[in-house]
Amino acid sequence: MSDRYLPYAADAEQSLSPDELQVLQRQFERELPRPRVQTKFNYAWGLIKSTRKREQRLGVNLMHEIYNEHEERKRECLYYLGIGYYKMGEYANARVYIEQLLSLEPGNAQARSLRELIDEKVSRDGMIGLAVSGGALALVGVIAAALLKKRSK
């Protein structure tokens, strides 16, 4: 499958409407206990696009099932698992799946795009963490200095 069939990572930020997701859910439930792989895939992707972590987690779980059961869909699943984990804030897991895809397809523009988003998010979160740690350390220093000053009086 060519890159042009996969959405760029930024597309994952757009959620389906509740009605659209419900259509996918109903189709999936109608086909139980053995839904067609495309039905399951569509529902998983709709869930991954959700803004709700619980739905994203269910989408990732369904995508893992497809990945494990359908050899012909593994490549697609790598990308969508990467997006799912990215959206849930599990950047290390997201990176694992994107790196697997890039090892198979080094020129995959969508995977490279998602890897850049992951790197930016990790870098930004790391900087915020450093700023918070630095602020806390500065506060401790101010309190310690005030206590020392008070004791020396």
What does this structure look like?
With 153 residues, the chain is mainly α. 74% of the residues lie in helices and 0% in strands. Helix 1 packs antiparallel against helix 2 (37-48), helix 2 packs antiparallel against helix 3 and helix 3 packs antiparallel against helix 4. The protein is elongated, with a radius of gyration of 22 Å. The model is unreliable at 1-5 and 128-132 (pLDDT under 50).
TL;DR?
The protein has 153 residues and is mainly α.
The chain-level mean pLDDT equals 85
Largest sheet: none
Q: Looking at the structure, what is the overall shape? A: elongated
Query: Roughly how much helix do the residues carry, as a percent range?
Result: over 70%
Task: Tell me the distance between the termini.
Answer: 76 Å
What's the number of helices? 6
Instruction: Kindly name the structural category.
Output: mainly alpha
Which consecutive residue ranges, at least 5 long each, have pLDDT under 50? 1-5, 128-132
Beta-strand content estimate:
under 5%
Radius of gyration from the alpha-carbon trace, in angstroms: 22 Å
* Succession of helices and strands: HHHHHH
